[in-house]
Amino acid sequence: MSNRGSIHKAVIPVAGLGTRFLPATKATPKEMLPVVDKPAIQYVVEEAVAAGIHDVLFVTGRNKDSLENHFDRSPNLERTLAERGDFEMQGKIAELADLAAMHYVRQGVPMGLGHAVSMAKEHVGSEPFAVLLGDDLVDASTPVLPDMFAAQQKFGGSILALMEVPADQIHLYGCAAVVETDTPDVVRVTQLVEKPAAGTAPSNLAVIGRYVIDPAIFGLLENLAPGRGGEIQLTDALAALIDTPADSGGGVHAVIFRGKRYDTGDKLSYLKSVVSIALDRDDLGPDLRAWLTSY
User: Which range, of 29-33, 177-181, 193-197, averages the lowest pLDDT?
Assistant: First the structure.
């Protein structure tokens, strides 16, 4: 039976090793690397909460304790800030534990994004749920989750977020072939290809790290053979849902995202993201812009 309704739970996979950022990530999860004055993962959680999510499941691995600590109370730090009269920061620190109900499950062996999502089965149950990847930060001024939730209520099934990218970059992403619907910027997905070879992509529409997924995905993930890179690929399971009957949770649609997105997945794009976000801030932007210009 196809599920349509409010989305209450988010799954955030954070079990990766962060090898692109070594040695910085030898003892620090890549999700905890600072983007100006907040770790990257905090932006992702705040985005989910702003869209109405009140339950967050992190799929973690070894060496992720600092992430759990970040979203927990810190009585000694809060007391110290209060004694110094910094009540504003004390409040911000305390609020982190109340953003949402935080849950954690360990992915013992990182076997791909599809495997990480499969770890959420018992927690999610029979509800559609959101998946947010920590490498993609979506600017709060141009959210995409509300449009994805609305599309899921209208069409059912699973919803992707797609973004137009230059043709010479599409091989870096999952890619979708689509047809239009009667809703502006919402399309029906007819084909998904994970990182297509040069010249073979069906479009220039790249899958970015936001999903709303029907729980029918779990049955597919359980029996899915390893795909690209020898990993259980979420894209492969979603591709199988395209032709699954709608009354069984099938069908895949997508929202075309035209807002501001920051990619923190590699060193250069991470640096660009930090600078871009800082430039947009009233307290940092003017001075940073002046310094960049003179530099």
Answer: 193-197
For residue 66, which of 94, 37, 26 has the smallest C-alpha distance? 26
Q: Give the residue among 226, 182, 187, 184 at the shortest CA–CA distance from 205.
A: 187
Return the structure tokens found at 50.
């702003």
Three-class SS string for 112-159? CHHHHHHCCHHHHCCCCEEEECCCEEECCCCCCHHHHHHHHHHHCCEE
pLDDT digits (tens, 9 = 90+) for 151-180: 999 999 999 999 999 988 888 888 999 999
How many Å apart are CA 268 and CA 261, to the nearest integer? 15
Q: What's the CA gap between 176 and 200, in Å, rounded?
A: 12
What is the β-pairing status of strands 101-106 and 55-60?
parallel
Phi, psi (deg, nearest 5) at residue 190 = -110, -15
Of 58, 29, 28, 60, give the one whose Cα is nearest residue 45. Answer: 58
CA distance 12 to 134: 7
Give the closest residue to 162 by CA, choosing from 153, 151, 175, 152.
175
Question: pTM higher than 0.90 for the full model?
Answer: yes
How confident is the prediction for the chain on average, in pLDDT?
Answer: 91
39: nearest Cα among 17, 19, 14, 57: 14
DSSP-based three-state secondary structure for 247: helix
